[in-house]
């Protein structure tokens, strides 16, 4: 019988890798809670018009990449390809704007796009995102950028590059769009096929083409800065000044436009050189029209999303996450000893220990080898002799130091032992 494998574009996250994910999630929760962001959890699928109206029908995501199907009620349903549209839909549907003030939201979950799978890019992928709704202040732009930088720093990721641009207002972008069509039209035959298709549908996306020939042509294209209104220019200058004040370095990139139609004003990306061609790990910007597009009141907003697969790749390249190890490994052999070992493991776990109990029933030698491979500092050993006397052998695996003590004494001194275990782990003496 053929073995059933995971569907193309999906992957299993095995226990050895999950440690990285848990670290990322824990750091994110702590940081965002301290910044007064509240978690929101939206459905994994939505009505298709949400993304057609929100992201834009002219985008590659809507036109080529969405997982869309009819449900049994003949309703068009789409697996979410990104998180912002769903968060804004919830903001409008549940009248969060009526609470007044600024709403700071964050989310974490699976997204789906029909793309060519490659390292750090799957058809089912995961995003961490933040949204600030209700503020047009440039400080909101600077705040979300600063939080992304702080998040990467907290994970030990350095050497990132922040790319910054503005796409102005809808009116600015329309003037700029017309200028791009005039510029690229004489080169239409020399553009890559995707850019030829985008020329009259979404010409701004030609600017971020990865095709070398198209990139060469785009180098002399008009720049958005020449088509900004005074208000748009002032907003962007304020964002730059605030980031400079926060000592967050950035590079201006007039070709950075992002792939979603809802962006206005600020657009930015954090790029990591160690990820190669797929270097963008975090992207976002301002989207002042999206709430009204989805039926809500006029509400300025700004946010970002981080692709966790790419982030985990970078962490793995750094070796920046230690594999979780148990506080102790319990070895036992013999019916009474195995029953007592189970009870002892249970009681230690209740006291806050992480305990791995060997259930193999194999010879002591094999169990002790598994204990050593677990990288735990401490091994507890019970055999028939210990079971009869209600004792155990306590063995520090690094030094080989060994002692006999009663099981009751172990439980009574558990806090002291846990402190010694902590020191061993911190010193990496295991």
TrEMBL record:
Pfam families: HGTP_anticodon, tRNA-synt_His. L-histidine binds at residues 82-84, 113, 127, 131, 258, 262-263. InterPro entries: aa-tRNA-synth_II (IPR006195), aa-tRNA-synth_II/BPL/LPL (IPR045864), Anticodon-bd (IPR004154), Anticodon-bd_dom_sf (IPR036621), His-tRNA-ligase (IPR015807), HisRS-like_core (IPR041715), HisRS/HisZ (IPR004516), HisRS_anticodon (IPR033656). This is Histidine--tRNA ligase. GO terms for molecular function: ATP binding; histidine-tRNA ligase activity. Keywords: Aminoacyl-tRNA synthetase, ATP-binding, Cytoplasm, Ligase, Nucleotide-binding, Protein biosynthesis. NCBIfam families: hisS (TIGR00442). Residues 1-326 form the Aminoacyl-transfer RNA synthetases class-II family profile domain. PROSITE patterns: AA_TRNA_LIGASE_II (PS50862). It catalyses: tRNA(His) + L-histidine + ATP = L-histidyl-tRNA(His) + AMP + diphosphate + H(+). PANTHER family: HISTIDINE--TRNA LIGASE, MITOCHONDRIAL-RELATED, HISTIDYL-TRNA SYNTHETASE. It comes from the Bacteria. GO terms for biological process: histidyl-tRNA aminoacylation. Its EC number is 6.1.1.21. It is found in: Cytoplasm. GO terms for cellular component: cytoplasm. Homodimer. CDD domains: HisRS-like_core (cd00773), HisRS_anticodon (cd00859). Its main location: cytoplasm. Belongs to the class-II aminoacyl-tRNA synthetase family.
